[in-house]
Amino acid sequence: MRFSDVSTVPGLADRLLEPLATRLGKAQLPTLRRLGAILGWIWFHLVPIRRRTLLCNLALTGIAVGKPARRLAYKSLTHLCTTALETIWLGQGQPACAASLLPIEHLERYEAAAQLGKGVIAVTAHLGNFDLLACSQAAQGIPLAIVSRDLGRGAVSRLWMSSRRRFGLTIFEHGKHSRQVLAWLRAGKVLGLTVDQRQAPNRAGVLVPLLGVPAWTGTSAARLALRTGACLLPVSTHRHNDGTHTATVHPPLEPREGETVESLTARINDVLSEWIAKTPEQWLWIHRRWS
Q1: Between β-strands 231-239 and 245-249, what pairing exists: parallel, antiparallel or unpaired?
Q2: Helix (H, G, I), strand (E, B) or coil at 289
Q3: How far is CA 105 from each of CA 36, 196, 203, 270, rounded to the nearest angstrom?
Q4: Residue 1's pLDDT is what?
Q5: Cβ(283)–Cβ(276) under 8 Å?
Q6: How many CB atoms lie within 10 A of CB 112?
Q7: CA–CA distance, 125 with 34 (Å, rounded to integer)
Q8: Are 129 and 29 in contact (CB under 8 A)?
Q9: Residues 145 and 247: beta-carbon distance below 8 Å
Q10: What is the C-alpha separation between 222 and 196, in angstroms, rounded?
Q11: Is 178:185 a contact under the CB 8 Å cutoff?
Q12: pLDDT attached to residue 2
């Protein structure tokens, strides 16, 4: 059962989620982080949904096996729970609050890319609090759109999407609105793409390494960059030990002479692999990335 599956239980999410979100919105961040640790412990020890997938992914990539893998798995689930609570809390507050929660290193790299006027493709991963990254930048007036999968018509999806839009995010549904995406970039705006999930070969996925293991990977970022000339800019976010966050704008990935969609996608995965290896406990290991 996934987090979004609660929305398939008729009426349950509507009765529970909105009052819960209201209460969480009144809590202090340290309280949410303690609650996230409790929920992570419950998830790992008592309701082991996707625990096997998580441990298999860690072993497959050589990140960790045995007891170290179990410790890392617990930390990963704690991080996911804490991130979910922070995201709900953020959606209940004022948009201006988001920017203060996420200082950005090397913002000048984004500013230089934006000045080129060809649009910016900000590629990131499900690492750190990736929703905070998008919401905080949109709240500051950056013309930012994201491509997001639809979670369905339930309360979880409504709460998540409405809170994102409150910060000024434009949302294009995954697999649709291709013309609008092209027009958005050609207008010199910013498109945020999370590029670390599995993309099947029948949906234009290519097989390139991620953490040293071949993985079917989406090519949207590479295709758009090569087609439009937009700057391909990796942006990561990570959580510090004290619970605070920092985002980093990395050097742009400029297409090389004779660059192909596959080779550029492989270079993107190389960057993601470096990020994940540095803070593996903050990545979405529960995703069936290599299956």
Answers
A1: antiparallel
A2: coil
A3: 27, 22, 35, 21
A4: 34
A5: yes
A6: 13
A7: 25
A8: no
A9: no
A10: 13
A11: no
A12: 39
In degrees and rounded to multiples of 5, residue 130 shows phi and psi of -70, -30
- By the 8 A CB rule, do 176 and 189 touch? no
Residue 87: HSE in the Cβ half-sphere, 13 Å Cα cutoff? 23
Chain segment 20-65, per-residue pLDDT in tens: 777 878 888 899 999 999 999 999 999 989 999 999 999 999 999 9
- Does an H or E element contain 234, and which? strand 231-239
Contacts of residue 264, Cβ cutoff 8 Å, sequence gap at least 6: 222, 225, 226, 232, 253, 255
CA distances from 230 to 62, 192, 257, 267 (A): 35, 12, 16, 16
Can you tell me the distance from the alpha carbon of 191 to that of 93, in angstroms, rounded to the nearest whole number?
Answer: 24
Q: How is residue 251 annotated by DSSP?
A: P
46, with CB counted inside 10 A (0-12, 13-18, 19+), is exposed
Residue whose entry in the numeric block shows the structure tokens 């990395």: 250
Question: The tokens of 204 are what?
Answer: 């234009």
pLDDT reported for residue 152 = 56
174 in Cβ contact with 149 (< 8 Å) = yes
pLDDT tens-digit series, residues 175-193: 676 889 999 999 999 999 9
Average pLDDT on 81-93 reads: 85
Closest among 153, 147, 130, 141 to 224, alpha carbons compared = 147
Please give the single-letter amino acid code of residue 12.
L
